[in-house]
Amino acid sequence: MKNRVTPTQREIALGEQDFIVSKTDLKGRITYANRIFMNISGYSEPELLGRQHNILRHPDMPRAIFKLLWDYIQAGRECFAYTKNLCKNGDHYWVLANVTPDRDEGGNISGYFSVRRRPRDEAIRYFSDLYARMLDAERRAGPREAIAASTALLEDEISQKGFKDYETFVLADAL
User: pLDDT tens-digit profile of 141-172?
Assistant: First the structure.
């Protein structure tokens, strides 16, 4: 089911001590959501459980960021990413997400675990601008080449800032 929420442009800020926690299966369907997640997103537990995590995807988010995140976690690596999420009522909130593979007793990836917290205001401003440029690159490139165009812009930004990869770029205090 496609999310048809219209963005309001109103931002909700996570508290400094708030941590949003969720778990998903291998396909990104939510299997656990903590109370803070439910409170800030506006969704109840029954509305979240079994739904794709992309129910929160804000239209201001470039596709390339989610491709990169999925590439990391499906390869068994943790990923840090700044994301702008969409609430049920159309408001939004920014998070610094840490997504890690969840493994079964045999060491196989059985799902994904995510902890999200409030990002610094400077990071929100920076990534909001970067993501707008990435979205523009995606639109100009068209659907078939959107992710490649946006990824190229991101890789250029990372290189120009002097970082070796996406992870060090996101975790840098210098932004």
Answer: 999 999 999 999 999 999 999 999 988 999 98
28 dihedral zone (left: phi>0; alpha: psi -120 to 50; beta): left
Do the Cβ atoms of 69 and 151 come closer than 8 Å? no
SS3 102: strand
C-alpha to C-alpha distance for 136 and 156, rounded to whole angstroms: 15
Query: Could you give the strand order of the β-sheet that contains 19-24, starting from the edge strand earlier in sequence?
Result: 30-33, 19-24, 109-117, 92-103, 79-86
Instruction: State both tokens at 6.
Output: 């219209």
Answering whether pTM is above 0.90, one says: yes
Domain carrying residue 110: 19-164
Average pLDDT over residues 72-86: 96
SS3 (DSSP) at 56: helix
- The number of folded domains in the chain is 1
Residue of 55, 23, 18 lying closest to 40 (CA atoms): 18
Residue 69 in contact with residue 79, Cβ under 8 Å?
A: yes
**Is 42 within the bounds of a domain?**
yes
